[in-house]
Automatic annotation (TrEMBL):
GO MF annotation: an example: phosphatidylcholine lysophospholipase activity
Pfam families: Lipase_GDSL_2 (PF13472)
Keyword Signal: yes
Keywords (A to Z) from UniProt: Signal
Signal peptide: 1-18
This protein's name: Lysophospholipase L1
Domain SGNH hydrolase-type esterase span(s) in chain numbering: 50-209
Family annotation (SUPFAM superfamilies): SGNH hydrolase
Length: 222
């Protein structure tokens, strides 16, 4: 029943797009496995929580930020529907700071930008209302490297990434939240993900997270 209620809650934002075919799915065996783990960890306090998909999950944040209480709440393959469905656990953990990065998997499945942004606004609303003392930091969706991408469903989506990030900027301004443009660090002169940072054009090499953390420190966000 709980999962049905969560799914219903996630479907509410797309009501206005009922005439379109909207893929709002998120709950698969991997998602459930990660949630089984996170549900057992959500009672532990965290100074910093990283929330997102596989790009977040693959970061060794606890080692990169040793000495701090870190919660990695990335789930590979997750999208804005999946994040919306698991915010209760995030709020329960009461982190002092949240880094949010989500949206590329929504683009990959061809969801309209308006649907993604509607979900994104709902995520931000839930977090700011549920955690009024927590600093929520919005991060741009990363660029991709077209030449290295083996996934046809992500090819030719650079303009979609741009449009989504423009919308995310507006949401950050609307809620008076800090926005970090990760393209400053990760994009090359063509606006693509730097070849040295990726093997498959979308995911980051492990060493790239060292540069990411150093960049966040330079921006005085860590």
């Amino acid at each position: 029943m709980k999962k049905q209620l969560l799914l219903a809650a996630c479907l509410l934002p797309v009501f206005g797009f009922a005439q379109q075919k909207i893929d709002s799915s998120y709950n698969n065996w991997y998602y459930e496995g990660r949630m089984d783990l996170y549900d057992q960890l959500n009672n532990q306090p965290a100074d910093i929580l990283f929330l997102g998909n596989s790009i977040t999950e693959r970061g060794e944040w606890a080692e990169l930020l040793s000495g701090r209480k870190i919660a990695n709440r990335g789930i590979g393959g997750d999208n804005t529907f999946g994040v919306l469905a698991r915010l209760d656990g995030v709020i329960k953990q009461r982190p002092r700071k949240i880094f949010l990065l989500i949206g590329i998997n929504d683009i990959g499945r061809g969801l309209p930008t308006e649907v993604i942004l509607n979900n994104y606004r709902n995520i931000v609303t839930r977090l700011t209302q549920g955690l009024p003392k927590t600093k929520l930091i919005i991060q741009s969706v990363l660029p991709m490297n077209e030449g290295k991408l083996p996934y046809d469903y992500l090819k030719g989506k650079a303009e979609k990434v741009k449009a989504l990030n423009e919308g995310i900027v507006r949401i950050a301004k609307e809620f008076n939240l800090p926005y970090l443009n990760l393209h400053e660090l990760f994009a090359d002169e063509k606006g693509e993900l730097k070849a040295a940072y990726t093997k498959d054009g979308i995911h980051l090499e492990p060493a790239a997270y060292v540069d990411w953390v150093n960049w966040l420190k330079q921006k005085k966000q860590l």
